[in-house]
Amino acid sequence: MTRRFLFLLGSSRTGGNTETLARRAAEQLPPGTEQRWLSLAEHPLPDFADLRRDSDHVRPPASGTEGMLLDATLDATDIVIASPLYWYSVSGLTKRYLDHWSGWLRTPGLDFKATLAGRTLWGVTVLAHEEQEVADPLIGTLNHSAAYMGMRFGGVLLGNGSRRGDVLNDTGALTRAKTFFAREAPLARFPYER
Ligand SMILES: Cc1cc2nc3c(=O)[nH]c(=O)nc-3n(C[C@H](O)[C@H](O)[C@H](O)COP(=O)(O)O)c2cc1C
């Protein structure tokens, strides 16, 4: 089956380190792998409104930003959250996109959870801090979201940097990028299930 990778860029600036690292990793994808790159800053979603107790969510029109992101999500075999570390977790743009999953889960006729189950979630992040364990909240957010959705989780590719281009000096991250998407992505589990 052809794999279709959706790269969701969560930085609030263009040409940042997270995108640079994600592109390095993507260069190693096997030929024939489809890639789609979408910047969440260029395609801003509205704040998520929780309608769960009030009314049904309706499928957003395909012509709008939400509908476009929904269709891109449903179409992908592999979803790559490429978010910088902001306040130890995903960026606000990324979090807002994930919040919309809650609406899509409750949109009649979408089968959002059943469609994503068995597909793979990946993460790429760059942080200024030298000690990578401060990114554990971001890793937990992505792992637990994948576990909730019945998805596979390929883990998070971590890099270090602050100014644009810094990550190109992180030789460890560039080495890890070469094999990142070749690693196994087991079904995600919550910590208490292991
Ligand atoms: C709003 C904001 C919050 C940040 N929070 C953290 C943080 O919690 N820990 C950290 O190590 N770096 C933090 N940084 C630094 C960024 O992770 C770092 O500059 C990274 O390169 C930004 O990603 P980008 O280059 O892809 O835009 C923060 C930067 C911004 C703008």
Principal-axis shape equals globular
Write the CATH fold name: Rossmann fold
- Indicate the CATH architecture: 3-Layer(aba) Sandwich
Rg, rounded, reads 16 Å
Order of helices and strands: EHEHEHHEHEH
Small molecules bound in the structure, each named once:
flavin mononucleotide
* Structural class determined from secondary elements: alpha/beta
Q: How much helix is in the residues?
A: 25-40%
- Overall pLDDT level: 96
β-strand number: 5
- Count of helical stretches: 6
C-alpha termini separation: 30 Å
The CATH class designation is Alpha Beta
The number of domains = 1
Q: Any idea what the CATH superfamily is called?
A: Flavodoxin domain
Largest pleated sheet: 5 strands, parallel
Strand arrangement in the largest pleated sheet: 2-1-3-4-5
Strand content: 15-25%
Low-confidence stretches: none
Protein name: Flavodoxin
Organism: Streptomyces populi
Keywords: Flavoprotein, FMN
Domain NADPH-dependent FMN reductase-like: 5-124
